[in-house]
Task: inverse folding
């Protein structure tokens, strides 16, 4: 057992060397690494938000709004279908509570035709693992003269999925504009999005930017009524709606219901400055269809004010001085430079499909992060030094072998963490410390076993040999059980707990390698070199 | 050549299992008292499991004027508010009870920031909404239970059901004792506490499996030795290893307790306690339980005759050497 095949020695040596090489970049500040040639490993361990500061925001998409929007679309489709087939109907209603749209057909003889036409609205949803058919997005039912379309669970999940995807894209564009490094935006569970932005200092602004739906609309102001009066009485004329500005106190506006142009027709928006007074403004440009509609609307309403509305709040209501035909315009509204910048980002990134609300928020200031990493480092190094001294005190030379293995172990953890792009958190540092305990235990088991074998009268080589092979069973059993607990942590945990589990898993695997293989090779080499009559153990 | 200090003499003969009456009493104490503590004093539930807002600030004046801050915040109508010093004298922790909805929760933090203005810098804010906190409780409990089941199955496969049951019983003992510590010291119980508990489970089990391994080996080796004697012998044989391992792990963990910073203090306390309590339960709970459960020797008589010959010869040599 103490003779190793050459290829094994080379392989183990290569792994150890690779461990040191890939762990090495972590010893230097990242600025120092920039200057090195490209073939030198650059990857460092990512520091978790708790160690470098930053924001962790968990959003949930508003399902009710999503369902209502969808039912609204279905209602529109039903109306369109029945009209184009010249089928008379009454009581076209949507019911949010049971996610359905129902309609009654006027003439009994039309019911079957209506049913077969409306059936065409039902679409299959293929979103299971094998890409196969997993159900329809709606159920259609007929009772008497009434036809009901009900949104199904699969259909709803599909809607949520695609809304989440779209939201992630939108959020990514918005966060990118924020200019921080390596934000992470990912789906969590069924209806959630986790946004992690390291190093961000102004979390309020970030939240403002992400959380705004960003729905832009242009509507005409109804000139025939007095907005202040209607705001008091709340009696809004039919075809109109009452909205407020973001001022303090809010200014009421009575607007025509119909949307002239919406943000969907926007192709670009950029912050800029008004040529006349130098105030920050947002310049925007419409696509061809939008430009045409905006041109026609402004042509017909010269001299009247129109409102620019963002998320149902009036930003400004300028008077149309002349038709805006070129498809580009300007939004002004007493913005600061930053506000104009954020608004242009919001418009450029497109609207969110539904409202997002923050259900969990954890932010760590950069100074606290720096303090945490500082104290974590200190504690880890102190712990490491204590362990190394203790191991040497307990086992002398064999303790030194164990210490070398420990060093390799820590290097391997950092190498794997760096290569995987995994994140090191404060609990992760604690995990590394625990790995040190577990790795030491493997060596303690081996060394104690060797001592027992020596006491049983075995020769040094035989004692080492059976010490290793017998301790191996206990090492594997004990490490696998720990691994089970840790994998559960990874599977069910989140955030820092997961980081902790990752470091612990890597550490346990590395320790099984180093404690058993690396130390054994060291001991074997020493035995061959010294050929001792008795072991110093 | 320096051969190392022998911290534990190699031939201890301590009656661990034979004197089990005392240890049963201690174990019962370590299991019942925590439950009583949790029921009466209660756990200091962090916002992870309760929902709520936590704001850590550093004041510009040192030390912080807690009364001042309390005055500014208590008037905001946010329900129960806790303000306490945290670590350094200019660091203050503000805790606000969970608000009915997620929107109100978001609004609460804005109100606090408005009230405190520029007098402080914000080091950390955490807002956990009501939905998340209940999920975290469910997830945490599930994690502990699933880990226990996984371990039960593994130990059952590798050993015998008696070992698996003994392992789980002693792990439950460790978990209740640790939770009791949280209640006693009123340490904040949060997601890291669950991580600490799972880690303690993993570590403590590691320890038990090592002793089980030796018990199994001795069951094969000494076929006619009374079980009590065999268990005592197994524990004594592993005593040196157990002490060295626990001391090193404690040495690695203790620095976190003293200068790991506030963020990891609670975690480190639990870990250090868990290491000690896990070491205790390996010897005084997991092993004596074998007596109650009645380990079947036949299950371990499957070793080959050559292996048997080897071990018996080893024994003879040991006897001759002694």
Result:
């Amino acid at each position: 057992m103490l003779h190793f095949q050459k290829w094994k020695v080379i392989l183990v040596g290569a792994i150890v060397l690779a461990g040191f090489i890939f762990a090495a970049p972590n010893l230097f500040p990242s600025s120092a690494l920039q200057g090195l040639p490209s073939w030198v490993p650059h990857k460092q361990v990512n520091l978790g938000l708790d160690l470098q500061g930053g924001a962790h925001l968990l959003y949930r998409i508003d399902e009710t709004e999503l369902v209502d929007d969808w039912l609204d679309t279905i209602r529109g489709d039903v109306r369109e279908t029945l009209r184009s087939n010249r089928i008379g109907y009454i009581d076209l209603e949507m019911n949010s509570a049971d996610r359905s749209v129902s309609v009654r057909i006027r003439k009994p003889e039309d019911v079957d035709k209506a049913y077969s036409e409306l059936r065409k609205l039902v679409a299959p949803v293929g979103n299971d693992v094998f890409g196969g058919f997993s159900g329809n997005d709606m159920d259609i039912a007929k009772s008497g003269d009434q036809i009901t379309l009900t949104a199904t669970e699969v259909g709803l999940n599909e809607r949520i999925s695609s809304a989440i995807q779209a939201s992630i894209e939108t959020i990514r564009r918005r966060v990118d504009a924020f200019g921080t490094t390596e934000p992470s935006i990912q789906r969590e569970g069924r209806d959630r999005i986790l946004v992690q932005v390291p190093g961000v200092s102004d979390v309020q602004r970030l939240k403002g930017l992400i959380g705004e739906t960003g729905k832009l609309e242009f509507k005409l102001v109804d000139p025939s009524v007095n907005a202040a009066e209607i705001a008091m009485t709340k009696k809004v004329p039919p075809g109109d709606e009452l909205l407020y500005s973001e001022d303090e106190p809010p200014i009421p506006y009575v607007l025509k219901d119909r949307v002239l142009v919406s943000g969907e027709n926007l192709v670009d928006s950029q912050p800029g400055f008004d040529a006349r007074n130098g105030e920050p403004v947002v310049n925007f440009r419409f696509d061809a269809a939008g430009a045409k509609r905006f041109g026609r609307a402004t042509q017909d309403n010269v001299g009247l004010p129109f409102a620019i509305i963002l998320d149902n709040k009036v930003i400004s209501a300028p008077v149309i001085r002349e038709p805006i035909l070129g498809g580009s315009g300007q939004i002004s509204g007493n913005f600061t430079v930053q506000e104009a910048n954020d608004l242009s980002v919001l418009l450029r990134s497109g609207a969110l499909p539904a409202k997002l609300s923050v259900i969990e928020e954890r932010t760590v200031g950069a100074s606290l992060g720096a303090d945490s990493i500082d104290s974590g480092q200190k504690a880890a190094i102190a712990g490491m030094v204590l362990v190394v001294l203790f191991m040497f005190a307990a086992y002398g030379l064999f303790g030194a072998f164990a210490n070398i293995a420990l060093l390799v172990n820590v290097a391997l953890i950092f190498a794997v963490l760096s290569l995987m792009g995994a994140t090191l958190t404060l609990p992760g540092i604690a995990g590394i410390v625990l790995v040190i305990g577990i790795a030491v235990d493997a060596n303690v088991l081996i060394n104690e076993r060797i001592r027992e074998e020596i006491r049983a009268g075995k020769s040094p080589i035989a004692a080492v040999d059976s010490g290793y092979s017998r301790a191996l069973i206990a090492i594997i059993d004990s490490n696998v059980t720990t691994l089970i607990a840790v994998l559960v942590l990874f599977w069910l945990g989140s955030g820092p707990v997961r980081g902790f589990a990752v470091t612990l898993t890597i550490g346990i695997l590395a320790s099984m390698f180093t404690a058993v293989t690396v130390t054994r090779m060291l001991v074997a080499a020493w035995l061959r070199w010294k050929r001792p009559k008795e072991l110093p153990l | 050549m320096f051969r190392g200090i022998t911290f534990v003499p190699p031939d201890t003969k301590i009656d661990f299992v034979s004197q089990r009456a005392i240890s049963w009493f201690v174990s019962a104490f370590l299991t019942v008292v925590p439950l009583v503590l949790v029921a009466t004093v209660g756990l200091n539930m962090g916002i992870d499991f309760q929902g709520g807002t936590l704001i850590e600030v550093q004041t510009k004046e040192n030390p912080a004027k807690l009364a001042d801050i309390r005055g500014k915040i208590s008037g905001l109508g946010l329900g129960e508010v806790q303000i306490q010093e945290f670590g350094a004298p200019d660091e203050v922790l503000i805790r606000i009870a969970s608000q009915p909805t997620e929107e109100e929760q978001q609004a609460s933090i804005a109100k606090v920031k408005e009230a405190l203005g520029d007098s402080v810098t914000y080091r950390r804010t955490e807002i956990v909404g009501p939905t998340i906190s209940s999920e975290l409780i469910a997830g945490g409990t599930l994690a502990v239970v699933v880990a226990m089941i996984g371990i039960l199955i593994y130990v059952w496969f590798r050993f015998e059901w008696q070992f698996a049951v003994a392992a789980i019983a002693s792990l439950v003992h460790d978990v209740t004792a640790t939770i009791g510590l949280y209640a006693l010291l009123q340490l904040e119980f949060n997601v890291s506490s669950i991580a600490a508990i799972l880690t303690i489970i993993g570590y403590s089990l590691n320890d038990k499996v090592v002793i089980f391994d030796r018990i199994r080996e001795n069951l094969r080796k000494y076929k006619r030795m009374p079980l009590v004697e065999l268990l005592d012998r197994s524990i004594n044989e592993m005593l040196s290893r157990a002490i060295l391992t626990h001391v090193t792990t404690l040495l690695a963990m203790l620095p976190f307790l003293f200068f790991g910073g506030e963020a990891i203090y609670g975690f480190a306390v639990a870990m250090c306690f868990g290491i000690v309590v896990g070491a205790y339960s390996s010897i005084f709970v997991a092993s004596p339980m074998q007596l109650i459960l009645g380990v079947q020797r036949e299950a371990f008589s499957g070793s080959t005759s050559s292996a048997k010959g080897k071990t018996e010869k080893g024994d003879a040599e040991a006897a001759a050497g002694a």
